[in-house]
Specification:
globular; 383 residues; five-stranded mixed sheet; Cytochrome p450; alpha+beta
C-alpha cells in the first residue's frame, strides 16, 4: 500500500475543509498572502528563518498562538512569551528534560505498561495501538504533573482531559470564544492543582519538585505543567500509531525491527510525513519581507509546516533530511520544543517494544474525526 494513502485520509477526516485549502496553497508558491487569513509560508528554509527571528516574528502578538493559549494558561508560559523573560524561564526549564533524565523517567514510568504490551503482542493478541498510546502518554503526563497513579483508567482519564481541550481547536481557530476558554480552564484546573501540590511537596524525584529546586515559582511551574500537558501528550500519542502504520504500509517494518539503528531515522521521517504540528503562528512586529512578500507590523504569519515537509516527497526511510528541514515540526530557534527529549524517549520506548514483536500485521484501522492532530480512531495490530 502507498504509505501516503492513509496519511491523506487522516488529514481529510480531521480537517475536511481546511486541509484541501492548505494543500491548494502549497501550489501557490513559497509565500502567499491570503486576504482575511494572513501570510502563508510553504517553504522550509523561509519557515526556519521566521522561527529563528524571535524579535520580528513573535508568539505574543495579535493573530499568534498566544491569542489561543493565553486565555487558558495565563500570560507567563513558554507558549506565549518572548524576549528576556522567555529566555530566562526557558533557561531554567531546559534543565528539566535532559535526554538522560527523559530516558530514566520513561523507563521508570512505562516499565509495567510496556511489559504488558510486550506480553499481549507476544501471545498474538490483537492490540489497539491508539488506546495503548493513550495509556502510555497518560502515564507519562501523570508523572510529569505529579499524580501518583498506576491505574490504566486514571491514565486514560488524564489523556482525555487534554483531548477535551485540544479538540476545541481547528486549523482555522484564532482564539477560543469566552465560553470555550472558560470550559478549558475548568478542565485544566484539577491538573494545575495536582501540579501545585507536587511542587509544594518539593520531592526532587518528581518534575514539579525539580522545578521548585531550580527556582521556578509556583505560578510558573503550574503554567509549565499545563503547557506540557496540552502540547505534548496528544502529539506523542498520535505519532506512534502513525509511525507503525507508515512502516507497515511502506514494507519497512521488519527492516527497522531487525536494525535498531534505523529507529531514530524512521521516527524523524514519520514525523516529517505526518507533521504532528501542521501549522505554526506568528505575529509580525517590524516591517520586513518573507521571501519576496513584504510584511508589516500586525500581519499574521502562518507557517504551513505540513506543506514545508510534504514538499520533500512521500515516506522514504532512506531519505536524508536537509538542514533547513531538520525537525522543523518541533519548531526552531527560541521556541524549539523544550519537551523534545521527553517526546523522543517516550516514542522510542513504545516503538521499540512494538517492533520487537515483529512480524506484525494491521488487522483493522479507521480515521478519527473532530481532532486537531490527525490520528487514527483505532489501529489494531497482531502477530
Amino acid at each position: 500500500m502507498n504509505p501516503g494513502t492513509w496519511e491523506r485520509r487522516l488529514y481529510r477526516r480531521a480537517h475536511p475543509f481546511a486541509y484541501p485549502l492548505l494543500r491548494l496553497l502549497a501550489r501557490r508558491g513559497p509565500v502567499v498572502r491570503v486576504p482575511g487569513l494572513g501570510v502563508v509560508v510553504n517553504d522550509a528554509a523561509l519557515a526556519r528563518q521566521v522561527l529563528l527571528d524571535g524579535e520580528t516574528f513573535r508568539k505574543d502578538g495579535p493573530g499568534s498562538s498566544g491569542d489561543l493559549w493565553t486565555p487558558i494558561l495565563g500570560p507567563s508560559v513558554l507558549l506565549n512569551m518572548e524576549g528576556p523573560a522567555h529566555r530566562a524561564l526557558r533557561a531554567r526549564l531546559a534543565e528539566l528534560f535532559t535526554p538522560g533524565y527523559a530516558d530514566r523517567l520513561c523507563a521508570q514510568v512505562l516499565a509495567e505498561p510496556l511489559a504488558a504490551l510486550s506480553g499481549r503482542l507476544g501471545r498474538g493478541e490483537p492490540v489497539d495501538l491508539v488506546d495503548t498510546m493513550r495509556v502510555m502518554a497518560g502515564a507519562v503526563i501523570c508523572a510529569v504533573v505529579g499524580l501518583e497513579s498506576r491505574s490504566e483508567d486514571d491514565h486514560r482519564q488524564m489523556f482525555h482531559r487534554g483531548e477535551q481541550i485540544v479538540s476545541m481547536v481547528t486549523l482555522r481557530t484564532r482564539t477560543l470564544p469566552p465560553a470555550q476558554a472558560r470550559r478549558a480552564r475548568e478542565v485544566l484546573e484539577p491538573v494545575g492543582e495536582i501540579a501545585a501540590r507536587a511542587y509544594l511537596a518539593g520531592d526532587q524525584s518528581t518534575v514539579m519538585g525539580r522545578m521548585r529546586e531550580l527556582g521556578i515559582s509556583e505560578a510558573e511551574a503550574r503554567g509549565a505543567a499545563g503547557a506540557f500537558f496540552l502540547t505534548g501528550t496528544e502529539t506523542v500519542a498520535t505519532l506512534v500509531p502513525r509511525l507503525i502504520a507508515l512502516l507497515h504500509d511502506a514494507g519497512q517494518f521488519d527492516r527497522v525491527a531487525a536494525d535498531p539503528a534505523l529507529l531514530d531515522p524512521a521516527i524523524d521521517e514519520a514525523m516529517r510525513v505526518s507533521t504532528p504540528t501542521p501549522m505554526m503562528l506568528r505575529s509580525v512586529h517590524a516591517e520586513t519581507a518573507i521571501g519576496d512578500v513584504p510584511v508589516r507590523p500586525g500581519d499574521r504569519v502562518l507557517l504551513a509546516t505540513h506543506n514545508c515537509c510534504q514538499a520533500y516527497g512521500p515516506f522514504d526511510l532512506d531519505r536524508p533530511h536537509p538542514p533547513e528541514l531538520r525537525r522543523l515540526w518541533f519548531g526552531a530557534g527560541p521556541h524549539f520544543c523544550i519537551g523534545y527529549p521527553l517526546a523522543m524517549a517516550e516514542i522510542r520506548a513504545v516503538a521499540a517494544t512494538i517492533l520487537s514483536a515483529a512480524p506484525l500485521r494491521i488487522v483493522r484501522r479507521s480515521a478519527a474525526r473532530g481532532v486537531l492532530i490527525p490520528t487514527y480512531r483505532e489501529l489494531v495490530v497482531t502477530r
